[in-house]
Design goal:
homodimer; alpha/beta; Nucleotidyltransferase, domain 5; 5-stranded mixed sheet; two-stranded antiparallel ribbon; 10 helices; 11 strands
């Protein structure tokens, strides 16, 4: 569980990390959240009375309007947890609650890659693929808290891969870190033993595949190139749906660096409408591992502004 | 060119149609637009001084913020036409300008299928496939006037069909009226002569294919069923992107009736997240052939409200 204090200019005054220990259950988890907030506040040299608002961002299925975690995939004993009301009850300050990828998009739009834009689409490239969309300064939550599930846009019908969500042909089934490894394993099974990746076959990681590609391994390079293509299909679909100022990629995979981003841009230029190719910026996220709590703070700040207007 | 007077409750007080005669050029076209507005006003028994605002909706590429038609596909001599300023200059009332599918979405959200919703996604099923999105009562125009180009979301990579836009694998290349006919022609070329559609092969229309399917022709029924599946892929992608209250289908193809809508719903139920399957309404548009000018009026009304707030 990460937490930090962020000032009104988007600067992180502290950043702390506490173990979630999900198996110890909801009550423990909620107290651990409160503890993370207290520790982050102390680490910034502040007292709780100096905290204007709190933002909480979590993964998994949730009812964002109600402030409830419904059924988080990696926090199994948790279910129907009224996170927002609990945090608000403990600290007595306005508390925002948001999906983690949506929050990260708010953070990037506030002080990250999209700080000079009105609208952006964020893809978070990790174990899975998350999405967050900000339009005219407003995060897209969706009518049922499922806005911007961009990893689950279907991009293939004829030979669709099975996705972790149980469906077929989702972007995530092609371009998440897990899918990159799976595609490499399949290619290695067909490969005559030439690829340098064979040495790492037992414990293959997306990172290793990108590294071997950078070192000139043909099979790894092919997997990376296809990944750029799949991500470009996702970007093109987002551009033809939302038409944002900017498409932003965050998450572990952006360690692949500028060449990989260049290949995504190339494939987008082959697929998207010319005016969008010309005008839509495609960039990496800038907030790194602080994106989560800076984004949550962006949501809290947005809530404060809403409250001050009403 | 269609026009009508719409009152503040969304009721059409008149509806008229004048030939566009696109080949006569821009100046003629702009005057024809003005004439359509005058004729529609007279047909409603009103004088121009009783018109509070004007909405204009056109197809093709445009700069919506600037109020300019850039390069309309079916109005070839037209280019860079400052439609909004011209109409405003002639009639001296607030004038809204919008893409036709976006306007139709505004109309359906105002007094059509989505009148009780906050957000909807509209697919217009005609020669091509258009898209319009309304989120929290605001139409999605996009940063570059290309929001909601939902016919050009890519749904196939392995064997992508060529789209009218020049790209590959777009939804429109599978489920527009032209694509339905093309797929049927291909199926007939493979068919041993059993299908009743062979009789109409020279002048095949999407309407004929749906009719033959309804009368029990197996090949036609297969084409129709696949069309429902493709449209469901498009709907699922829109649901996982925008998460609207409602997905609405408009355009000529909805003459296919409730059974076709039922098949779209069935395929969506197989592909979308369960909570969205349960909660997202999927319906046909209700404004029929008046959708265009009622939608344009919705945009004009929205503009009036913005002006009265600022």
């Amino acid at each position: 569980m990460k937490g930090g204090v962020v000032d009104d200019t988007g600067r992180a005054l502290s950043g702390v990390s506490l173990p979630t220990e999900a198996s110890r259950g909801q009550e423990f988890g909620l107290e651990r959240m409160c503890e993370t907030i207290r520790v982050a506040t102390r680490a910034a040299g502040l007292g709780m009375e100096q905290i204007a608002a709190i933002g909480v961002a979590t993964p998994g299925t949730m009812d964002i309007h109600a402030g409830i975690i419904l059924d988080p995939p990696n926090l199994k004993p948790w279910q129907n947890v009224p996170v927002r009301d609990h945090i608000h009850g403990v600290f007595k300050v306005p508390t925002a609650f948001q999906n983690d990828a949506n929050a990260a998009a708010c953070g990037e739009a506030w002080v990250g890659a999209g700080r000079n834009t009105r609208s952006l689409v964020l893809f978070t490239l990790g174990t899975g693929i998350g999405g967050g969309v900000v339009l005219d300064g407003q995060v897209l939550t969706g009518a049922h808290s499922h806005g911007a599930e961009l990893g689950h846009v279907k991009i293939e019908m004829t030979q669709p891969r099975r996705c972790g969500c149980g469906r077929w042909g989702c972007l995530e089934a092609y371009a998440s870190a897990i899918s990159v490894v799976k595609r490499a394993q399949e290619a290695l099974a067909r490969d005559g033993g030439v690829s340098s990746l064979h040495r790492e076959r037992e414990e293959l990681s997306a990172r290793a595949i990108f590294d071997h590609a950078a070192q000139g391994d043909g099979l790894a390079a092919q997997i990376v190139e296809e990944t750029a293509y799949y991500l470009a299909v996702g970007a093109t679909n987002a551009m033809h749906s939302f038409d944002p100022d900017m498409v932003v990629y965050g998450g572990g995979m952006i360690a692949a660096g500028p060449a990989f981003l260049g290949r995504i841009r190339y494939h987008v230029s082959e697929m998207a409408f010319p005016v969008l190719v010309e005008k839509t910026e495609i960039r990496y996220a800038e907030l790194g591992s602080d994106a989560g709590f800076i984004g949550a703070a962006a949501c809290a700040r947005h809530l404060l502004r809403q409250l001050s207007r009403s």
